């Protein structure tokens, strides 16, 4: 008995509908009309003899089997895409399309420094950027929506490969009135947990700060309400508390035009590690390593390195220590 094999186009329609939960939006994502997408899915259901999607006027609801097939279809589409990438990567490196995910505590501070060099070195590369919090960026990576991600480690992101780029020192940001008689560095044990402001859940910088300070009471006492580092700095300037910011943000001018000043955090592990990550087994690994080298070469040469944050002998670059 012959078995019907779904087409890649039908799988694309199925995955798009599962991701968007709306026929119109899924059709737009696939660059087809809504009727074309709907007809393609009905043909798929008819040929395999099962219902994948329950349709009503207001709700698109996947059946349990439909959800399983959509998940498998994502992997099939990713593998198919990687077949094409294998052929392309065998030719000239870093040409064509590359989708790069970047987290919000890196994107506005690092990208302006590195993008001009990337454009100059790899003029045939079409770089598409997607800014998302760490969890969403990892999900996009494994869904095949991005090819690689600029992420701050440590962060659990599933089955990935990574190359460390540099370590990014954390600084304590304080309001102007705190300046008198402050030491050159501020110890983690000197931070008042009732005045610590952190980014809201979803930003890995929050966890890196709490890990660097290594004080369990900070997790319970800190106020988690900031949606961006710029917002956090404004709250500090208005006397609502103190926060911690990465050195790359300070170098990029985060504190310019404010009365907020910063001191390096003194702790056993005062940094987060910036890395480029990609799906394990990706045929574009050599290209990602070329991209990582380009980014590293854009970073100012560091002063003599202090002790590193994590057990990784590959890292000998520190930024801001």
From TrEMBL:
Q: Which domain of life is it from?
A: Bacteria
Q: Which SUPFAM superfamilies match?
A: Periplasmic binding protein-like II, Winged helix' DNA-binding domain
Residues covered by the HTH lysR-type domain = 6-63
Tell me yes or no: is Transcription regulation among this UniProt entry's keywords: yes
What keywords would UniProt list here?
Answer: DNA-binding, Transcription, Transcription regulation
Signal peptide coordinates: none
InterPro entries (alphabetical)? LysR_HTH_N, LysR_subst-bd, WH-like_DNA-bd_sf, WH_DNA-bd_sf
Q: Which Gene3D superfamilies match?
A: Periplasmic binding protein-like II (3.40.190.10), Winged helix-like DNA-binding domain superfamily/Winged helix DNA-binding domain (1.10.10.10)
**What PROSITE patterns does the record tag this protein with?**
HTH_LYSR
Family of the protein in this entry: Belongs to the LysR transcriptional regulatory family.
Name this protein carries in UniProt: LysR substrate-binding domain-containing protein
The record lists the organism as: Sphingomonas naphthae
